[in-house]
Write a structure and sequence with these properties.
CATH architecture: Sandwich
CATH superfamily: q2cbj1_9rhob like domain
Number of helices: 6
CATH topology: Jelly Rolls
Helix content: 10-25%
Shape: globular
Number of strands: 12
Strand content: 15-25%
Order of helices and strands: HHEHEEHHEEEEEEEEHE
Number of domains: 1
């Protein structure tokens, strides 16, 4: 089946803010108080960015890839789920943008890039990698406390943002992502890197009662943005409904390659002829643009 294409502003529409498109500008322009709140809390939960038809199109594309149908002929970067797995297995597929142009369009959407750029004060935003996540109802397992940048030490600085696109409504009983408010201000905790991602019981947060826990309860089409050092987790899905999301992990264009930690992205990068050298900015087709300011 040929992948449908999205009609919203995408990679071809990269331009500085404010854009001439007033509707686009209204959706992505953040207020000063929103930027200040992100600096304090480590997250920003945005209003609906993707329409119901876009959500349906993206979700269908993600499920096609999950079930082994690759429109481009290329497999995703990593699969942590197969159709033969049990009904309670959390589905996690990484770098599906290699396999389907609809997913590529979604995770490099200029709406995501423009917001991420404002949140971290960047002149450009590139894709690091994506993740498709489906947490099954009636018990889909936990994802324990972690920071995203702890796995991305090949990026020299924590100028990274995770853009979590809700592909279904997410209620409090569906095992929503939970942020530890303000935890990004406490630095990197590499020693906390979890050995087991899933299980039956979410452990207590690393700071006990010191920091509030904020569940990300959102509607389909909304996007949650969080800082690469924000501690987060999710509990079991005890509802009767599966929880669907597509995640775009992005970074500032001025970040450079630091070869101190292996990652599927840098492993793929090394197979390309134009591979960044240590200390060079990331570039090339492995890290497509999401948004950039004019030269």
């Amino acid at each position: 089946m040929e992948s449908p294409t999205l009609t919203a502003p995408l990679l071809s529409d990269l331009a500085p803010l404010p854009r001439g498109d007033a509707g686009f500008r209204a959706r992505v322009r953040l207020r000063e108080e929103e930027l200040a709140a992100f600096d304090r809390t480590g997250y920003h939960i945005h209003e609906e960015l993707f329409s119901p038809s876009e959500v349906a199109t993206i979700r269908e594309a993600c499920e096609r890839v999950a079930h082994g149908h690759y429109a481009t002929g290329k497999p995703p970067g990593w699969r942590a789920w197969e159709p033969s797995y049990g009904p309670q297995a959390v589905c996690k597929i990484d770098n599906s943008w290699h396999s389907d142009d609809t997913i590529r369009a979604a995770v490099t959407d200029a709406r995501l890039g423009a917001i991420a750029a404002q949140l971290i004060g960047a002149n450009g935003i590139r894709l690091w990698h994506d993740q498709y996540l489906r947490k099954p109802g009636n018990g889909g397992g936990i994802v324990t406390w972690h920071q995203d940048w702890m796995f991305w030490q090949a990026i020299d600085r924590c100028r990274t943002v995770t853009c979590w696109i809700a592909l279904s409504d997410v209620t409090v009983d569906m095992g929503p992502m939970v942020f530890l408010k303000g935890s990004h201000l406490l630095g990197l905790h590499q020693h906390m890197q979890p050995k087991d991602w899933t299980g039956d019981n979410l452990p207590p947060p690393p700071y006990g009662e010191d920091l509030p826990q904020v569940p990300v309860v959102v509607k389909a089409g909304q996007v949650s943005f969080h800082h690469g050092n924000t501690l987060h987790a999710s509990d079991c899905n005890v509802s009767a409904h599966d929880r669907y999301s597509l995640v775009s992990h992005v970074f500032a264009e001025d970040c450079t390659y630091r070869p101190i930690q292996d990652h599927m992205c840098t492993n793929a990068m090394k197979e390309l002829p134009d591979c960044p050298l240590p200390g060079e900015r990331f570039h090339g087709p492995q890290f497509p643009w999401s948004w950039k300011a004019p030269i």
